């Protein structure tokens, strides 16, 4: 069965970086993409970006350009999301989600989420 | 950037029909996906491409999309349907193409 298992919770200071991992299993990793979505406490869902596991192409939300990098390691079927220059408003649960083919397709399987807390 | 507008809350009695709307400029020209999120859990896809259901999602969940409004309809509502529901589209002309609505809290009375 398809599973996306994310790394554990992180606490970071403002200005630091965080790297969240998302290990996929149960499907051919390179046949799909991964989108990242975050959710601030008590708030709605926010799309952050997408990466193709086939060729590494990316599409980032403009507001995060320059601070976010999404990568994949096909040898371990793992996707990564790194966010730099963290601010307090980056405190959120970060989700990875599988996307079939192009980024406009639905997010059909989700990871369990990773809480990132940014606090001095 | 493209904006999706959802009502903050919808209430319905068990066994009745719930309708959750998602408004956007000419949304009928886009494919709309719907997600259900229960407290402390990751979202789950319940309807995609306006009206298709993933395997394992009950037929009680259906969707439609026309003009400036997409609608998620939940028939014969059960207590277990109480959750937040989010619509989502892809707007390729935007600098933030993956767009979510603000979410609707469905309360089962």
Provide the descriptors you would attach to this structure in a database record.
heterodimer; A: 120 residues; mainly beta; seven-stranded mixed β-sheet; four-stranded antiparallel β-sheet; 11 strands; globular; B: 109 residues; six-stranded mixed β-sheet; three-stranded antiparallel β-sheet; 9 strands
Brief description of this entry?
The complex is a heterodimer of chains A (120) and B (109). By secondary structure, chain A is mostly beta strands. Chain A is built from no helices and eleven strands.
Please give a structural write-up.
The complex is a heterodimer of chains A (120) and B (109). In chain A, strands 2, 4, 5, 6, 9, 10 and 11 form a 7-stranded mixed sheet that branches. A 4-stranded antiparallel sheet of chain A has the order 1-3-8-7, with no helix packed on it. Helices cover 0% and strands 53% of the residues of chain A. Chain A has 120 residues and is mainly beta. Chain A starts with a strand and ends with a strand. The radius of gyration of chain A is 13 Å and the shape is globular. The mean pLDDT of chain A is 96. Helices cover 0% and strands 43% of the residues of chain B. In chain B, 37% of the residues are buried. In chain B, strands 1, 3, 4, 7, 8 and 9 form a 6-stranded mixed sheet that branches. Chain B has a 3-stranded antiparallel sheet with strand order 2-6-5, with no helix packed on it. Chain B has strands spanning 9-12, 18-23, 33-37, 44-47, 61-66, 69-74, 83-90, 98-100, 104-108. Chain B is mainly β and 109 residues long.
């Amino acid at each position: 069965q398809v599973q996306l298992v994310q790394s554990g919770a992180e606490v970071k200071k403002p200005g630091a970086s965080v790297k969240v991992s998302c290990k996929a299993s149960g499907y051919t990793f390179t046949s799909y993409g991964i989108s990242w979505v975050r959710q601030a406490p008590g708030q709605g869902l926010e799309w952050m970006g997408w990466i193709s596991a086939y060729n590494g192409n990316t599409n980032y939300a403009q507001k995060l350009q320059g601070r976010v990098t999404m990568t994949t390691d096909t040898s371990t079927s793992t996707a990564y999301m790194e966010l730099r220059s963290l601010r307090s408003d980056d405190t959120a649960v970060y989700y990875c989600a599988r996307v079939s083919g192009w980024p406009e397709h639905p997010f059909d399987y989700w990871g369990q989420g990773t809480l990132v807390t940014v606090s001095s | 950037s493209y904006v999706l507008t959802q009502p903050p809350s919808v209430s319905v009695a068990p066994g009745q029909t719930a309708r959750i709307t998602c408004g956007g400029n000419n949304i009928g020209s886009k494919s709309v996906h719907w997600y259900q999120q229960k407290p402390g859990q990751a979202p789950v896809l319940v309807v995609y491409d306006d009206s298709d259901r993933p395997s394992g999602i009950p037929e009680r969940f259906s969707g439609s999309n026309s003009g400036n409004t997409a609608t998620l309809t939940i028939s014969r509502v059960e207590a277990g349907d109480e959750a937040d529901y989010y619509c989502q589209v892809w707007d390729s002309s935007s600098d933030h193409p993956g767009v979510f609505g603000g979410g609707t809290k469905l309360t089962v009375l």
